[in-house]
Amino acid sequence: YTEAWDADKKSIHVMPDTPDILLAKANAANISNKLYVKAWEEAKKKGYDMRADAIPIKTAKASRDIASDYKYKETHEKEKGHYIGCPSAKDDPKLALAARAMALQNDRLYKKAYNDSKTQIHIPVDAMSVQAAKECQTLVSDIDYRQYLHQWTCLPDQNDVIHARQAYDLQSDNVYKSDLEWLRGIGWLTEGSVDVVKAKKAQELLNDRLYRTRPEQLKFTSIADSPDVVLAKTNAMQLSDV
């Protein structure tokens, strides 16, 4: 199946020092994540010495504590002295919160009897709707539809297991395409590919300029002593006024 493709791969050769190949390599180096973080990885390998009693560490801790204490007390400092008195109960946050809690409690007590009576429903077990619902549940139930087979346990070094793994590897799409993984990210020129060569050959076959030679391009020299040339010269001598 892959014999023709392997033959085509061997027949295509691109020089490694062409400008397009060099440009593709340069682009690959520019967008390479490995080269991008290379300096950072080398810096991490060198390590660092940062003691807990270092001056920058102490400064950062002190700044964090100061900022944390300031943010924690910021709202309190802004509201300090503002809630001396409220003109009405609606303006007091605590009274408004208590009124909201009382309304929610009254709504729960109002619906308590209804919620208790919702479960007090008696339906005969042989009703038509109940039987139809049971049959529908049986039809759409995944437990009754799917019967799981016995889970066999095989030793990993058995010959049939090893043969099955080899067959799975041969049929695996990842293994089938593993020889093309090294091509990912490499610059490639369409010039010289199978499709481009095929199109050029088809263009040459259909090109009328290459297929048919024009008459004016042919080198033609008439024969001086042919009968028609001699006859023409004789007629010209006979008709000449001189």
Automatic annotation (TrEMBL):
InterPro entries: NEBU/NEBL, Nebulin-like, Nebulin_repeat
Source organism: Pycnonotus jocosus (Red-whiskered bulbul)
Protein name: NEBU protein
GO biological process, one term: cardiac muscle thin filament assembly
Annotated GO CC locations: Z disc
Coiled coil start-end: none
Alphabetized GO MF terms: actin filament binding
PROSITE patterns per the UniProt record, alphabetical: NEBULIN
Encoding gene, per UniProt annotation: Neb_2
Keyword annotations of the record: Actin-binding, Repeat
